[in-house]
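Trying the structure run again after the queue cleared.
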Amino acid sequence: MVKPNYTKDDIRKIAKDENVKFLRLMFTDLYGVIKNVEVPISQLEKLLDNKLMFDGSSIDGFVRIEESDMWLYPDLSTWMIFPWGSEHGKVARVICEVYNADRTPFIGDPRNNLIRVLDEMKELGFTDFNIGPEPEFFLFKLDPETGKPTLNLNDKGSYFDLAPVDLGENCRRDIVLELENMGFDIEASHHEVAPGQHEIDFKYADALQACDNIQTFKLVVKTVARKHGLHATFMPKPLDRINGSGMHINMSLFNGDGNAFFDENDEMQLSKEARYFLGGLLTHARSFTAVTNPTVNSYKRLVPGYEAPVYVAWSGRNRSPLVRVPIARGMSTRLELRSVDPSANPYLAIASILEAGLDGLRKQIEAPKPIDRNIYVMDAEERKANGISDLPSTLHNALKELEKDEVIAKAMGPHLYQNFIEGKKLEWGAYRQEVSQWERDQYLELY
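Done. Tokens:
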């Protein structure tokens, strides 16, 4: 997906030629939820001149009511017309950066924060941080009477199954077509391991565009699924005893000479930069897990036996560790972080991952030796002997790790960090007060 270089005049012409009647001004809150302000096309000039305001106090993690007036600055490269029609004319979206009333960038905007971390990366001599995300999702049937999601899956398929077993194939195909209409370069589309689970992979992009793409992808998937009488969810573990949904993140750093992770003279053809970056990822993995796996439900996925990684280690070919190095080399040399799930705020997650890697580069943190055995069959003593630690087992434990790590706190910035910690502690507190059916089944009669 090539990033367009639209001018204001380009936008004016496209809006007129395509009969755009409404503008959807999109941004993302602290928790990764897409927000939008919809205005009629008559407001286009105000938008192009950075003169549109909104109430920031109504957005999670933004500002207090006494400082609520905020500006929306459009990133013109994100201009896109939604392919689904409207009887009242077409709807275009543009992703915006949030600015304070005094016209300074708002540090509580996760997208602004990622731009800040990317600027740090450039100061170290790197030009791009390319990201290839692999988001997975489930399709559940909607209740025809209420329109609410049920827990009834739409198929009984498994990995790479075809129709008639994969009944989500038509929906998935329509999602792919809509995404391609919007300029996405789709690389793969298939049924995943669990019944009702799907994956659509799109081409890598620079970090900021990749995060924009993830947010757009989620919106398209949910919109198209609904047309098929289905509800698409990116919840990490909607059902027990089957695989959860991950969002593997493939990443590579570039400099003026090309892919900084590639070194043809190294035994694994990995540069010292790749190994230091990897060292940083593994050092801070337990801390950034609260950001990359930010919900109570995330930790129902991070358990042994369902393909999700739970051990802090890396390998060139083994899929049980946290980080894998796919076989491709040259310009395609990359690291694959396998723990991330699609409930993560992509802007915060990528900022945290990048800052962890940059810390590895600054401090020249050596990556440990690769683990090429199946970690799931090792016992605790073997894992300890190989220097393999576990990821946090709950959101509560992940937050405790995050609070100990100044590097990941720096990656989020003080505003986002403080609001994230407070909000997630409230989430954990609310969860702790709930008594589950499992507990009643287990203990009610026994005690």
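The two ends are 59 Å apart (CA to CA). Worth checking whether this holds up in the mutant runs.
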